[in-house]
Write a structure and sequence with these properties.
alpha/beta, single chain, 18% strand, five-stranded mixed sheet, 34% helix, globular, three-stranded parallel sheet, 10 helices
Length: 244
C-alpha cells in the first residue's frame, strides 16, 4: 500500500511521550488513551517504517493484531478515544498528528473510518497523501461493511468491546444520564435493541453489554464479529521488501 506522495527521507527520531513506557519485545507499551490530550505513542518498533495513526478506541484491538501477526514493521500512535464523542474534532486532530509525525515514516495509514466527520477526514488524508479505513464507522468495519449495509438496522444501538468496557464514560455520563436518568427515553426511545459487536469471547464483557442494554431499556443481541474488515485493512499494509 503506497502513499501518493514521493517517499520521504525517514527521520529516525521518535516523538517523546509524557508517559514512562516499559519495554517488552522491542515495543513501547503505554496504557490505552481514553481522555482528552495529545496523541500517544502506543507501540514503537526500532525499525518500523509505517505508522498506524489510530483512534484510541481501537488501541487494544490493533495491538492484539500486531502481536498475533508479528507486525514489527508497524508503529502505533493513538489519538484520544474521547474524540469518538466529538466527530468535528477528529479531522483537525488527525491533521495535527500527521503534521507532527509523518516525516518520520515512509508511510502512514489512518485507522479511522469516516466516523461522523462528513467527509472531512477523507479530505485531510487526501491532502497528506495517506490512506484510511473505508466505511462510515467502526461498527461497519467490525461487522464487515457490505454485511453491515445489508442489515439496514436503523433502530439498533451498537457497542464494541471498547464501548462495553467504557459505557459509563462514553455513553451514560456524557449524555447526562447519571444525574438525569429520566432523559433516557428521550435519547433512546427510537431504538429497539442494543447490538453488542464482540471482538473477543469474554463473558465479563458480554455481561457488561447486557447490563448496558437493560439500563437503556433495550433488547439485547450479541454478535461475534472478531476484528472484521479492520484485520483485512491492516493485513494489506505490506512490510517493506528489505525488512528483516
Amino acid at each position: 500500500m503506497k502513499n501518493n506522495r514521493s517517499p520521504r527521507r525517514r527521520n529516525t527520531a521518535r516523538a517523546k511521550t509524557s508517559a514512562s513506557p516499559s519495554s517488552r519485545d522491542g515495543e513501547v507499551l503505554i496504557d490505552d488513551p481514553t481522555s482528552d490530550g495529545e496523541a500517544t505513542h502506543l507501540v514503537s518498533h526500532r525499525n518500523a517504517r509505517t505508522l498506524l495513526l489510530a483512534c484510541g478506541a481501537l488501541a487494544r484491538e490493533i495491538r492484539a493484531l500486531m502481536t498475533q501477526n508479528a507486525w514489527t514493521h508497524l508503529d502505533l500512535i493513538c489519538l484520544p478515544a474521547i474524540l469518538h464523542n466529538h466527530p468535528a474534532r477528529i479531522a483537525p486532530a488527525v491533521r495535527q498528528a500527521l503534521t507532527t509525525h509523518q516525516e518520520a515514516y515512509d508511510e502512514v495509514f489512518v485507522v479511522y473510518a469516516d466516523c461522523g466527520t462528513g467527509g472531512d477526514l477523507a479530505k485531510v488524508c487526501a491532502e497528506f497523501g495517506v490512506e484510511m479505513v473505508p466505511g462510515p464507522h467502526c461498527y461497519s468495519f467490525y461487522e464487515g461493511t457490505e454485511a453491515f449495509d445489508a442489515l439496514e438496522e436503523t433502530t439498533a444501538f451498537y457497542l464494541t468491546d471498547f464501548l462495553a468496557r467504557q459505557f459509563d464514560a462514553f455513553v451514560w455520563k456524557p449524555l447526562g444520564l447519571e444525574e438525569h436518568p429520566e432523559l433516557r427515553d428521550m435519547y433512546f426511545g427510537n431504538y429497539t435493541k442494543l447490538v453488542y459487536q464482540a471482538q473477543t469471547d469474554d463473558p465479563a464483557l458480554t455481561q457488561k453489554a447486557q447490563e448496558s442494554a437493560d439500563r437503556l431499556g433495550l433488547a439485547f443481541e450479541r454478535r461475534f464479529t472478531g476484528y472484521g474488515d479492520l484485520a483485512k485493512a491492516l493485513a494489506g499494509i505490506a512490510p517493506p521488501r528489505d525488512a528483516s
